[in-house]
Amino acid sequence: MLEDKGGTNINSIIGIVLIFLILIAGSYFNRPSPEQIQAAKDKQDSAVTAQIAIAAEQEKRAAEAAQIEVEGAVSTTPEIGLPLSPSPDSTKTYGLFEKAKYGEEKFYFMENEHLKITISSKGGMIRDVELKNYQTHDSLPLYLFTGDSTVFNTTFFAGTEKIMTQERYFEAHGRSFEVEGSNAKTLGMRLYADDDSYIEHQYTLTGGSFNLDFRMNFHQVDGAIASNTREVSFDWNIYSPGQEKSMKNERMNSTVYYKYLQDEVDYLSETSDEKEKLQTKVKWVAFKGQFFSSILTAKTNFETPTTLETVTDEEDEDFVKQMKANFWIPYNHERDETFVMNFYFGPNHYNSLEEYDMAYEEIIPLGWGIFRWVNIGLIIPVFNWLGKVIDSFGIIILIMTILIKMLLFPLMYKSYKSTAKMRVLKPQVDEINEKYPDKADAMKKQQAVMALYKKTGVNPLGGCLPMLVQFPILIAMYRFFPSSIELRQQPFLWATDLSSYDSIYSWEPYIWGLSDVYGNHISLFTLLMTAATLLSVKMNTEMSGGGQMQMPQMKIMMYMMPVMFLGFFNSFAAALSYYYFVATMITFAQQYLMRRFVDEEAILKKLQDHKKKPATPKSKFQKKLEKMAKERGYKG
């Protein structure tokens, strides 16, 4: 294990610095301004009020649906300030699509074990999507999107007139329904150009599914749609409502994902607004939230270009982001055309999304490169296996941590032995330091130290490399816990939700500096994690001779970084802080036991015996050092 000339434990520094660099990038964009804090304070109750209003509106519609059924539809009064559309004059002759300008908005319901979907006759659109088996953090119904803020619109020209389907009234073919098991039912919404030609939004829902089959049918409209039309524009925009305890964390984990037809999955920035015009065919687009997503997939593909955008209002405490997508759908004048699509409305559960074989699981941020493979190949299988036999996710995390530490123990033991070798050689290294005190003798001193290591058979990197092997797991966990929907709203000890922060005390007034960095609550798991890390740093510095350290500024840094983590982790998932706390305590216990049972006198004797062996050929590294010394004028 590497040491500085005073014996500082470089492994501890490497570990803390790496974690610090990972976290500071994620935290850079999260500091709100005082104005944002004040705005959040002024609107602290607005999110709950909005969700209550949504729930009340849905209950009202459901009650009306049970009492007044007209062809399976519920007729409602439009929002205040929006006048009723005038009724068409039966004596008048209307142009193409003109009669659809008039009507009254009606709502139709499709429901299975997982979903409750509201279809509006105005625009023939999906108006609301409720996930029946989930709730918001404050126990209200959970909607992926809802209300008039949703855009679901097809644009084309009929002659010289621009037609926007969201402004027209569709006629229903079918009734509201509930479906269970393997049964499937269909509801069609038709926009008539005249008595015989129409554009249809056809929705089919199967029992027990998170999928909604969506078909856009063009029936005998070749004379109604402009003859030069080869594609129609389709817009789908939503405002994603807040669902979790921390709006900041939701915004950090919400954006638009997409998959190219023949290429990889990509996404817009999660930390800033972005707009992108894709010039390659797209297979699907996902409006991805922290734990739930809406994914629209084409059976074939969407034509180019596809335009995607995210818009965030930092002062809005009701909605996370607005997510926008504009697609181009092919149209053929020579025959009736059907464009087949599919919606997925559901949780971001890795194994469930993987079963679709559409790369949907790529929307779950498990890290990149080796870190993602650690999660997929090790963490998720172990987590799922333990979940089959244990109900408490807190116990699952504890057992999983113990298993991982057992798996890594041989590496840790090797690292500890390397540390012990360096420690017992420290008096001899100190003698070399005293022999070459001047900076001008730095190269000679380095040569002498390397010669000592070579004679005793010590590899100065022997302690670092095994430690570095553990970092992929450390970082993989950093990505896994905040993304795991299994932990959502799962309690453990004092934590009510392992996927969010555990608050044992909170306050409302904004405190300059403290609220910006630390937040307005205290997370106990984060405190315990910080205390455990400080304890570990103390033990490591003592083991490496920290009492005689000649670089006090390095010692201060090693103690300050865990304190800085206190601010970074305070708003993170409680499961993550809990894991790091348990892992640190297990490491501390392992080091304590190894320190008691590893005989350092025996190690020193073995190193001295190694000196008596015949000299081995110089390594390339040593030859390079000697060459550099000669070039600088040292004789060696």
Largest β sheet strand count, sense and barrel closure: 14 strands, antiparallel
CATH fold call of the largest domain: Beta-galactosidase, Chain A, domain 5
- Count of strand segments: 22
Radius of gyration: 32 Å
- Strand-pairing-aware structural class: alpha+beta
Separate helix tally: 16
Strand content: 15-25%
Give a structural overview.
It contains 16 helices and 22 strands. The protein is of the alpha+beta class. It has two domains: 10-31 and 373-611, no CATH class; 41-365, Beta-galactosidase, Chain A, domain 5 (Distorted Sandwich), CATH 2.70.98.90. Strands 6, 7, 8, 10, 11, 12, 13, 14, 15, 16, 17, 18, 19 and 20 form a 14-stranded antiparallel β-sheet that branches. Strands 1, 2, 3, 4, 5 and 9 form a six-stranded mixed β-sheet that branches. A two-stranded antiparallel ribbon has the order 21-22. Helix 6 crosses helix 10, helix 7 runs parallel beside helix 14 and helix 8 runs antiparallel to helix 9 (442-456). The protein starts with 9 loop residues before the first helix and ends in a 5-residue tail after the last helix.
